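Appendix B, Record 12. Input sequence as logged:
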Amino acid sequence: MADINFEIQETVGTISQSPKGWTKELNLISWNGKASKYNLRDWAPEHEKMGKGVTLTTEELKALRDLLNGMEL
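Logged structural output:
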């Protein structure tokens, strides 16, 4: 399997933190030198490991925002 390179260009925010120190974060990330996209996933304390996540374009993130704003929580 090929190496996956990433660069966190902006940390938008942390949503939660587990007792083991992993954080669920929304970041703007460039994967393998490509254009940056928004990414939501779990990260180990020093970003040395990551869990599965979801990557969204700006348009997809706006659509998600609109869906969430329309929800009654």
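The chain has a mean pLDDT of 95.
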